[in-house]
Amino acid sequence: MADRYRPKPAIQRAREGNPSKTAITEGVVVPCAVLAEPDWVGVFRFSSDPKVESANVRCRDMALQEWRRVVPVLEVAAGIGEVDHTTVNDMCVCVARIDQAERDISERGLMVTAERGTVKNGAATIAGQYRTQLARYIRELGLSPSSRAAIKAPEFDEDDDGIFD
User: What is the biggest distance separating any 2 CA atoms in the chain, rounded to whole angstroms?
Assistant: First the structure.
């Protein structure tokens, strides 16, 4: 369901048409950019603990895969700019952390034994919180089917250099 309180970006309104013929406020125009892949070692640092290092290596790989899967789509479809780097980076970290939490749940179970008896695995709570944040990133970046449904792909003329010309 569309968020009726959040205005659509000007470029999206222009692509979809403007049946009400109200003026389209351009807002802030961000120049398109090719985003540089982050240094995932800086995010998931090396650890002397082999178990932590093993998890960090997998997180680096998951974040890298997500970056390479999503960024090319966003560069063409959404015209993302350098200011979106942090948002996309955080989204990739969320995906890696969800994978890490799910692996912990698979290894130790949903319920674990602690000092006070059997309790819910904390990784389940963490996974839920990361999923909530990931859903926001997906909506903001237009990566879900519902957020893409109304967006029409930009038409490139041979003379145009990009969608912001």
Answer: 69
> Which positions ≥6 away from 95 have C-beta within 8 Å?
62, 63, 66, 134
Residue 24 has pLDDT above 60, yes or no: yes
Contacts 24+ apart (CB under 8 A), 34-37: 34/75, 35/71, 35/75, 35/80, 35/82, 35/84, 35/85, 35/88, 36/85, 37/64, 37/67, 37/68, 37/71
Which amino acid makes up residue 108?
Answer: R
Residue type at 69 in one-letter notation: R
Q: Which of 97, 74, 80 is nearest to 144 (CA)?
A: 74
Interatomic CA distance for residues 78 and 151, integer angstroms: 9
- Token pair recorded at residue 39: 């240094």
Answer whether residue 51 shows pLDDT above 50.
yes
Burial class from Cβ neighbours inside 10 Å (0-12, 13-18, 19+) for residue 8 reads middle
Helix (H, G, I), strand (E, B) or coil at 86: helix
Query: CA-CA distance, 66 to 61, in Å (whole number)?
Result: 9
> The pTM is what?
0.72
Mind listing the pLDDT tens digit for each residue in 96-150? Answer: 999 999 999 999 999 998 888 999 999 999 999 999 999 999 888 888 776 666 5
